[in-house]
Fold this sequence. Notes:
- By secondary structure, this protein is an alpha+beta fold.
- It contains 7 helices and 8 strands; from the N terminus they run ααααααββββββββα.
- The chain has helices at about 1-20, 35-50, 55-60, 65-85, 100-125, 135-155, 265-290; strands at about 160-165, 170-175, 180-200, 205-215, 220-225, 230-235, 235-245, 255-260.
- The strands form 2 sheets. It has a 4-stranded antiparallel β-sheet, with no helix packed on it. It has a 4-stranded antiparallel β-sheet with strand order 2-3-4-5, with no helix packed on it.
- A hairpin with a 4-residue loop joins β4 (about 205-215) and β5.
Amino acid sequence: MKEGFLIGGGLICAGLMLELSVGPVVWETFAWPANGVVLAGFLAIIAIIFLLRNKIYACRFIGTYQAAIPTLVYAVVLTIIMGLTRQTVNGTWLNNMLAFWPFVLIYVYMAVILGVVILKQVKMWAAANFSLFTLHFSLLSHLGLFLAMTTATLGNADMQRLKMITTVGESEWRALTQEGAVREMPLAIELKQFIMETYDDGSPKRFASEIQVLTKSGKSIQTTVDVNKPVEVDGWKIYQYGYDTQMGAKSQISILELVSDPWLPLVYTGIYMMLAGAVCMFILGGRRKRV
Length: 291
């Protein structure tokens, strides 16, 4: 355990030095295809560590609970700090934990440990000549967690979140990035009507936008976007974001948020695998106790 805590502490110190010398992690540099190459290299490193576990002590140590538990403690503490501090895209240190080197290094190390543990479980499963239908629920959960962690992290570079200001009767192809840059979109949106319902005191009860979406492939879709009820078109989710607050119900503009996250299905797959593993643990564990 002491070694595990020392390694975790060393990673945090190394992360702090990187933060001071090169600044926060710039995830944009890992956009596709760079993140695909990084993922392939990361999997290769895990495989090499697993193959050398019987020859090198450090490789053998990575797959033990003495390495996993201290790393999990560090990860939990850093995650709690992230939850207690306001996170902003351009924040520094604790205010932008996803780009904070100590946070990133701890989670990368945890993913390496998880990957080695998965390979150990796969080897045990194969050696026991189990059928596919008897895949142990813990392996399923570990695979799901590994998939969710890696794809959510690397896929972050490909996620796009933009704002589009639409006007009644006009088609808009342009949107603004979080940095304020103008970007031409692969779809155009025309605001047909802005809808607002109010309470008796005049405060907004509901606001939505009737829009027509036109894609470059020629597809035309007429739909309504409500708050928390996005519309998905060609991989883009369109959210109702805002309007002209001075005009209120008479607003002639509607601000929409367009989000693209191509890695999200893989993240959801990992989450579903973890849930399936938990359900199996609950059902099979209960049956074994009764037996």
